[in-house]
Every structure is written in structure tokens, then in C-alpha cells.
Amino acid sequence: MRNLSHVVLLWSVITAVCGDELIQNFVPYNITLLQHAVDHVQGEGCRTQVMEFIEGIRNMSTRALQMLDASGKPGSGLLHGNLRHLGDFDQCMATHGQYCLARLLPTPGDALWDNLVQTVTAGRTGYELPVGTEVSLLLPHFGLLEWAVCTPTACSPQDVERGLNAALNVSSVSLKVFIQPRSCYRHTMEDFSYRVGDYIMMSIFLITGLFVLAGSIYHKKINFNNKPGRLGELLLAFSWPKNWSRLWSTSSPPGAINCLDGVRAFSILWVVMHHKLLLIAKAPAANKLFLIKELKKVENMLLINSVNAVDSFLLVSGLLRAYNMLGSMDKGKFYPVREVLQRYCRLTPAYGVMIGFYATLLVYLGTGPAWNTYMKNNSEWCQLNWLWNVLYVNNYIAADKLCILQSWYLSADMQLFLLAPLIVYPMWRWPRIGKVLLGVLILISILVPFLITYVYQYPGIFGTGLHNTVIVTYSKYVYFTTHNRMSPYLVGMSLGYVFHKIGDEPLKLAKVWVILGWCCSLTVVIAVVFGPYRLMQETLYSQLESSIYGGLHHLAWGTAWMWVVFACHKGYGGPVNSLLSAKVFRPIGRLTYGIYLTHLVVLMYNNATLRTAPYLTTYYLKLVQGLLVGVERTSNNSGSMVIISEFFLKNVNHTSQSQNAFAAINQQYTWTSSFNRLSGVITSISSRQLVFKSQQAHVGHFNSHPSSSNSM
Who contacts 500 (Cβ-Cβ below 8 Å, separation ≥6)? Predict the structure, then answer.
């Protein structure tokens, strides 16, 4: 353990200022190490300021000691994974110093050292990407060692890196320092200058606020005995009181599939908890190894293996798309180009505002040790790749640097929406041929991910034993791609066809078939969630087992939930239908699209501004707590502008009365609701009210038809 004590001593000597006695004991050695560092500094300005810093330490200068104190220092819990020492970011900024977050890479040493490194990093040192090559915001960090240093501002990141490596070499510690330029922050305004895009986004929010104010005043003053004109309708679309009452309405049209509200609500909550868990795995913690132990518990698989939640949204999307198209075809009112334009106009405005927000104002809303890692990277990716987002192809193009990470789903859903008529029309025109075509496509949707997983030896599911490179590759070529995710959508289309044929007629099923259906559905759900436990835990790769799970689990999940929706809608749901159809879920169902767009930026904000490593306990309780807080925040910020789409889209809404039975209540709660919700999120962030537990919900689906009863 000699090398470990060297590490602790070195960090303490360089960074710890814990009292006069310690200062007197450590300053001489401290200055010696700093002088070794100066010898390797190339910048003349840096060399000068470091010498002034050394002199300040000798003279016990307050500023010099504050800079020293602001640097990271190891605390207790090194053997429990407390490896990321963030120092005091704000104190360093207050001294007008430069805060740099250095990464320490263990280099091979003796056997004791290597065993120690494997112990404190949960054996993941060799599984995480090298410094500077990370491309995903959700890669886990269990083997990352970080050390914050507060340095003079004249020193470049390269100067700091060379100096720290020189200091480490003096003590013969088997560590190498890497510092990326964007891991350094200065207390200056040199990078803080608004651009044209920033002013455009601020103008959009300002104009929106003015419309909300004008609409609310008009709503209070209007005489509803007289029909408002076009301008009045536009103002009413922004009315806060009107939107608020519609948002919280619990009524539903006759024949609506009310259980879909609960399906959407639970799926959103589940996905957001999964994203929160991923970000906890990426963030520092005082006892990071506790998380590894929790991830190995089979009872926590419900949190760990939640990637199937989006399959529920795909199922609902396919169901609604097929049902609505078949109804339109029966009436001779199917206009595919119009429907595509309508869908694009419903989804893209709020989506575009969010893209613009990422690309412009996001970077100005806070600071923190990891701010650039989360926020600046995202902003730059949106500036670079925004076009692929608005064309809905970003799950195939630039998928390793996604603008708005969760937007891959929007693209996959839009692509399936565009392809759906090629399947539904044969089902309507030539039923036998159409059914065969759908069956063949479902078979292909199984074989494609199976073969891709088998041939390229991809994992069947995310797991703690995966190398980060594998996670990135799996996400890009399997998880994000439409051809690997289409099974639930096709299953949903088959259910939409069944509902279309049955109509509103009562359906009588023998009790034995109902019991069998529920037993099979429950068994499949349990198998999909808990079945891959060994795959997710073991580092030993099973090619066949991974391929089978990779090929079948999306279809299996969609099929299980197909029965749930069918049984609930046709009167065989019992208490399950009572739960999923509860009125409390209807407002949440209206919020899903905006929640989907905004939740991750709030979670990233929490990580980006984290000043110190938290202590993890039963994290899933915190997830639930944070989730509920996030949903509450989203709900409270979603009042205004909710029915703007009704104003703009009313002339192209040709949905029949029977189709509206499948529409979620108040179709107008789509991009306009989200637009206002975004303003609420920005307000919350800028007022620093978002804490580590705050969460916005993740969603899975967004109108597969001009009704809000789509998956989102």
C-alpha cells in the first residue's frame, strides 16, 4: 500500500490547507513540488504567475492559500470509490484563478498497485474510454480519477498538465495527468458574448410571453356570446387560464382508449428513472462502489433494464397510426401528404425551439466543474447537426454526436409513420396479402436485430460489464436504428387493425382465454425485464444468448402490452384497467411530449453544476422522489400556449369522429404545450431551483396521428 500513501500524501501536500499547523508542516514540501512543476512550464506568463503564487504561499497570502485550498484533496472513502476530488469551484473562481479538472490515468505498476486500482474502480479501469475520446453523455464512470487544481490564469491547460506530471514523477506515483482544454474554467467574461442566434431565441421567448399575457387579458375581457375573430382565436390560443383548465381536464371522448393514459404515464416515469440512473452512474459519488453493488441486485432490474419503456410508446404509435388510416380509407378521406405535413407541423415547432435553445442559450445558464462536458458539448453538437434533427434522420446520421440525445426516438417514430401506409393500404385493399405482408415484416423485425447482434457480436442489452466503446457502438448501430426497433410498432399496427375490424361491438371471450392471456402477458413482461440479469452482470459474452434476447425482447414486450391494451379496452382489464385508466393520468398524458423534450437537459444541469460528490444510499428512493418533483415542475410550467396548434391546424384536421375515439383528450396539447413548458424549465434553471433530485419525465412517443392519443 506504499503507493497509495504516496498518492494521499502528494494530494494533501499540494492541495490541503487545513489549519496553521498543517500549513507549517506541508508548505516547504509544497513549494518544492511547485518549483519542480515550474521547471516544466513553457509559457513565460504562467511561469511568472506560478512564482508569484509560490511567493504568496511563503508569505501566507490569503489569495494564494485560497487557491491552494480550492484545489481538490482526497477525503475518506478512496476504497469505496471516492476518486473524483472536485475541490471548491466557486472559491477558485472568486480568487480569479483558473479551475482545471485533471484526469488521472493509472499506469502499470507493481502487483499491489494494480490490484488496488482494480479494487477502487470496480475493475472498470480498462473498460472506460481513454481521455478525450468520449462521445456519449451517458457512459458510466466508475474508473475515472479526477483531481481539481486551482492555478494562475496565465497557465494554459498544457502548462498545468506538464507541471502536474512533473510533480507526480517526483513521488514516483504510477499516475499520468491529462487535462482537456474545456475542462478548465476562468473567472472572465471573454467567452460570454451573445450571438445572433442567442438574440433570436430570447426574442422568441419574449414574444411568446407577450402573447401569453395578451391572450390571458383577452380571455378575461372577451364576451363569449360573440364568436371571436381570427385574431381573437390566436390570442385565446395563448390564454393561460384557458390552457390551464384544458390541461387539467379529466374528461375523455366516448370510446377513447383510456388505459393508454396510464401506459404513457408509467412508461415516461420509468424511462426518466432510467436516465437518472445513467447520470448517477456518470456523476462522482463519495461511495461510488455502492452503486455497483446495487446494480448487481436482481430486485433492481426493474430500474436497470428499463430500455423497453420506449417500446410501449412505439406500440401505441403503431396502433393509432393503423386504426386512423383504416378509418380514413373507409371514408375515402385518406390524404397521406397532408397527414405527413400535419404531423411535421405538430412536432417540429417545439422540437425546433428546443434545438435552438440547446444551440444558443443553454451554455449561459450556469457553471460548474463539468459544465462544458455536459452543456457545451451538447450545444456544439446542436450547432453542428441540427439539420439532421429537423429532417428526422439523426438516428442514422451523426448518431454518435446527437443533438438532444433522446431525439433518436423522434426520428425512428417519424420514419415508421412515413412507412406505415405501405403496410396499412394492402391490409385495407387486399386483407389476406396485407396480413401476410405484416407477418413477414414482423419476422424480419426479429431476424434483423438477431443477425446484427450475432454477426457483429454486439450485446443483447446494456450491462455493467461492457466496455464503453461497445456501449457507444451498440447505441449507434442497434439501439438508435429504426430497423432494429420496429417490432413493437408493427405489433401495434396489428392491434389497430383488430380494433378497426371489431369496432365498438362488445366482444365475448371465454374466461379461460382471458386468464391465459393475462398469465402469458405477465410471464413475458417478467421474462423481458428480469430474464437478462446474467447478461447484464457477467463480463463473459454469450453470443447466442445475446442474439436471441436482442432479436426477441422488443417484440415480446410489445406483444405483452398489446394484450394489456386489448383486454383493458374490451372490458377484461379489471383492476389493471382501473389503474391505467385513472383520471389522474390524463393530464400527465398531455404533458408527455414536452416532458420528453425537456427532461434530459434538467438532469444534465444537475450533473454539470455538481460541486461535491454526494453520498449514495438507497438511490432508487431518491429517483422516485426526484421523478415526482420533476413531474410536478413540468405540470406547473405547462399552462400557457397549449391550444395554439388548434388555431393553426384546425383547417387541416380531417379526423373522423370514429378516429377521435382514439385521440387523446384535447389534441392541442402538443408542441405548443411543450413550448411553454420549455420556458418554465429555463426559468427554473436560471433561478437555480433545480436540485440533483429534480427530474423531468422522459417520454416515448409523440402523435402518430393528429391526435394526442398517440404514444406520447
Answer: 322, 323, 326, 327
Classify residue 104 by its DSSP letter: E
**Numbers of helices and strands, H then E, in the chain:** 31, 5
Phi, psi at 187, each rounded to 5°:
-85, 70
pLDDT tens track for 490-501: 999 999 999 999
Q: Which residues pair with 323 in a beta bridge?
A: none
Task: Assess contact for 601 and 377: CB atoms under 8 A.
Answer: no
Can you tell me the mean pLDDT for 523-538?
A: 88
Give dist(CA 156, CA 97) in Å, integer.
Answer: 12
Nearest to 353 by CA among 694, 680, 699, 690: 680
* CA–CA dist 303, 75 (Å, integer): 30
Q: What pLDDT sits at residue 681? A: 37
Say how far apart CA 663 and CA 128 lie, in whole Å.
45
Ranges of each domain in the chain: 2-186, 248-265+305-686
Q: Measure the CA angle with vertex 320, ends 315 and 321; round to 5°.
A: 100
Identify whether the C-beta of residue 409 lies closer than 8 Å to the C-beta of residue 394: no
Does residue 170 sit in helix, strand or coil? Answer: helix
Task: Tell the burial category of 269 from Cβ atoms under 10 Å away from its Cβ (0-12, 13-18, 19+).
Answer: buried
Residue type, 55: E
CA distances from 252 to 204, 582, 595 (A): 33, 11, 21
Stretch 536-541: mean pLDDT, rounded? 72
Joined grid coordinates for residue 708: 394526442
Cα gap 422→126, rounded to integer Å: 47
Let me know the angle formed at the C-alpha of 29 by 27 and 31, rounded to the nearest 5 degrees. 65
CA angle 79, 83, 85 (to 5 degrees): 135
Q: Residue 150: phi, psi to the nearest 5? A: -105, 115
For residue 184, give the DSSP letter.
E
Is 701 exposed, middle or buried, given 0-12, 13-18 or 19+ CB atoms closer than 10 A?
buried
CA distance 348 to 687: 28
Whole-angstrom Cα distance, residue 648 to residue 653? 10
Question: Helix or strand or coil: residue 145?
Answer: strand
121-169 residue pLDDT tens: 877 777 776 655 556 677 888 888 888 999 999 999 998 988 888 877 7
3-state secondary structure 361-418: HHHHCCCCCCHHHHHHHHHHHHHHHHHHHHCCCCCCCCHHHCCCHHHHHHHHHHHHHH
| Per-residue pLDDT reduced to its tens digit, 38-74 | 777 777 888 888 888 888 888 888 898 899 899 988 8
Q: Rounded to two decimals, what is the model's pTM?
A: 0.83
The answer to whether 682 and 675 have CB atoms below 8 angstroms apart is no
CA 548 to chain centre: 27
Q: Tell me the percentage of the chain whose pLDDT exceeds 90.
A: 42
Q: Checking DSSP bridges between strand 184-186 and strand 98-106, what pairing results, if any?
A: antiparallel
Phi first, then psi: give them for residue 559, nearest 5 degrees: -65, -40
- Decide: residue 29, CB within 10 A, 0-12 exposed, 13-18 middle, 19+ buried: middle
From the list 471, 347, 317, 456, the residue with the least C-alpha distance to 407 is: 347
